Amino acid sequence: MSGETILKRFPLSLEETERICRAHPTPFHLYDEESIRLNARRLLAAFSWNRGFREYFAVKATPNPFILSVLREEGFGADASSLAELVLSERSGITGESIMFSSNDTPVAEFAKASELGAIINLDDISHIPVLERACGIPEVISVRYNPGRLRAGSAIMGNPEEAKYGFTREQVFEGLATLRDKGARRFGLHSFIVSNELNAAYLADTASMLFELARDVKDRLGIRVEFVNMSGGFGIPYRPEDAPLDIEALSAEIRARYERTVVPAGLDPLALYLECGRFVTGPYGWLVSRVLHIKRIYKTHVGLDACMANLMRPAIYGAYHHVSVLGKEDRLADSLYDVTGSLCESFDRFAVDRELPEISIGDLVVIHDAGAHGHSMGFNYNGKLRSAELLLRGDGSVLEIRRAETLGDHFATLDFSKLGKFSEDGRADARDTEGRDGRR
Length: 441
Ligand SMILES: *Cc1c(COP(=O)(O)O)cnc(C)c1O
Prior knowledge:
The chain has helices spanning about 15-25, 35-45, 65-75, 85-90, 110-115, 130-135, 170-180, 200-220, 250-260, 280, 315-320, 410, 420-440; strands spanning about 30, 55-60, 75-80, 100, 120-125, 140-145, 185-190, 230, 270-275, 285-295, 300-305, 325, 335-340, 350-355, 365-370, 390-395, 400-405. It is an alpha/beta fold. The protein has a domain at about 95-275: Alpha-Beta Barrel (TIM Barrel), CATH 3.20.20.10. The strands form two sheets. Strands 1, 10, 11, 12, 13, 14, 15, 16 and 17 form a nine-stranded mixed sheet that branches. Strand 10 and strand 11 form a beta hairpin. Helix 5 (about 110-115) crosses helix 6 and helix 8 (about 200-220) packs parallel to helix 9. The longest helix has 22 residues, at about 200-220. The structure holds pyridoxal-5'-phosphate (PLP).
C-alpha cells in the first residue's frame, strides 16, 4: 500500500467476522469496547492537570445506551441536544450535572425535561432566558453559548461563525449573564463550538484561549466568577491514513500553558475545563461491515455493497473520505480501481470513488473504517432502507448485539394498513360523485 503512515486496523480476522455474520447478517456496525475504554482513559489522563475537568460525550455521535454506559463507567457525562438524547442519557444512568443540555431552537418541553433531570442547561440564545424562566425557572447553574462572529475565522465543515445560527454575540454574553444573575443564577459557565473534525491543535488551543479571555472579561466587567468553560467537541480523527492524528497530550499541555498565562493571573484558578467530544471518543473504534453483492463493469467498475448511505452518509453528503479495506486481502496489492457504491437510487450513494483496492470478488467482506461516530446515528430510511444492527466487541472477544437490525415490521409500524380498504371504497364513492356532478354541468 502506497505511502500510508497509519495502518487502519479492523480488530477481527476474516474467519472471525464470517462466524459473526452467521448470527448477524451484514450490513452491521461493530464497535470495539476495549479501545473505546482505553481512549476514554487517555483523554481523562491528558487533562488530569485541570481540577474539575469533565468530558460530556456528545450523544448524537453514537446514541446507543450500551456505549453511553461504557463511557459513564469511565467517568464521562453526556452532552444531549434533544428530548430523545436526554431520555437516552437518563436511561443509561447519566443524570444531574453529568448531563450538559446543549440544544438550539429548543422546544419548551425539552427545557422542562432537562430541568427535571437536573442537567446543566447551556443556553443558545439570549431570548431563551424568559422562555426558560417561564418553563421551569432559572436554575442555580447555567451556561451560555458564545459565538465570536467575525472575531474568529471559520473552518471547512462548520463555516464562518458570523454566518452560523448558534450562540450569543459577545455583547449578549455580558447582558445575558447579568440578567441570569439578577434572576437568581449563582454558578456560570461559558461554551463555544466553532470547529468540526479539527486536527490542527493550535486552532483548538485558540478556542480554549478565547474562552479563558472571555471568562477574564466577564469577571472584570460583571464581577461574575465563571466556574467552567466548555470548549465542546470538534476534535478531529485521522480519516485518511496519511492524516496526522491529534496529539491529545501535547494539545492538553498547550491549553495548560495558556491557562497559566490567562486564567491564573486573572484570579480565576481553579476554572474547570469541559469538553463535549463525540467523534474523537468513538469514531476510530467503529466499523461498518458489509458484503459485496455485485461487481458491475460499465465506464467505471462499481463494487455494489449490501450497505448504502443510509448506513453511513458522511461520504455522500460531505464527500468525506472513509478508509475501505477488504477482509482477508489486507496484504494484497491495491492494483484495482473501484467506485464502492450502495443501492440507494441516488447517484451520490458512494462510499469511495476511484479507490485503489485489491481485486474484489462477489461475497467479499468490505470494512468501512472510522464509522464509530456520526455513522449509524445519521442513518435514515429513504428508499425503505432498514437501519442495521449495532454490535459490541467485548474485551473477552465475545460479541454483544447492542441494537438489533430493523425489520420491515418496524419500518411500517406507523402505517395502519387496516384503514386502507375503507379508504379505497370512500375514494371510489367520491369518484362516482364527481362524475355525477360533472355530468350535470
Ligand atoms: C455535535 C456536537 C458535539 C460533538 O462534536 P464532535 O465533532 O463529535 O466532537 C459537541 N457539542 C455540541 C453542542 C454538538 O452539537
